[in-house]
Write a structure and sequence with these properties.
Its main location: mitochondrion. This protein has 125 residues and is mostly helical. Helix content is 78%, strand content 5%.
Length: 125
C-alpha cells in the first residue's frame, strides 16, 4: 500500500513538473512572460463572468503583465541597490561594532576591578 501511495504522489508531482516545464515556467524570462500573459488572458474573463460582484470587489485585481514586469524590475533594482549600499557601509558597521565591543569589555573590566595594562598583565585598582 505504501509503494502505491508513493507511486501516485510521485506521478502527480512529476506530471506537475513536466507540465510547467512544457508551458515555459522554468524557461527563459520571455517564456515565463508568455505564460503569464496566457494565464492572465484566460483567467481574467472567467473571474469576471463567474464570480459574484461582491467577491470581485473585495479581492485585488490580477495585475496586467506590464504592471507585473514593472513591479518585478523595481523590486529587483531596489534589492540590488540596498545590497550594494550595505556592502559599501560594511566597514563602518564593523568598526562601530568593534568599538562597542571594546567599550563593553572595558566597562566589564572596570566594574570587576581589573584593568588591562599595555603589557597584557592584569592589575588590581
Amino acid at each position: 500500500m505504501g509503494l502505491l501511495r508513493f507511486a501516485i504522489k510521485s506521478s502527480i508531482a512529476g506530471g506537475a513538473i513536466y507540465y510547467t516545464v512544457q508551458e515555459g515556467l522554468w524557461g527563459t524570462p520571455e517564456e515565463s512572460a508568455k505564460l503569464y500573459n496566457k494565464l492572465y488572458n484566460n483567467i481574467s474573463p472567467l473571474v469576471r463572468q463567474n464570480v459574484p460582484k461582491e467577491v470581485v470587489e473585495e479581492i485585488h485585481r490580477i495585475p496586467n503583465p506590464s504592471d507585473f514586469k514593472r513591479c518585478v524590475v523595481y523590486h529587483w533594482n531596489n534589492g540590488v541597490t540596498t545590497s550594494i549600499k550595505f556592502l559599501s557601509e560594511l566597514p563602518e558597521h564593523v568598526s562601530n561594532g568593534i568599538d562597542k565591543i571594546q567599550k563593553e569589555i572595558e566597562k566589564s573590566n572596570l566594574s570587576s576591578g581589573k584593568v588591562f595594562a599595555g603589557d597584557g598583565v592584569d592589575k588590581k585598582c
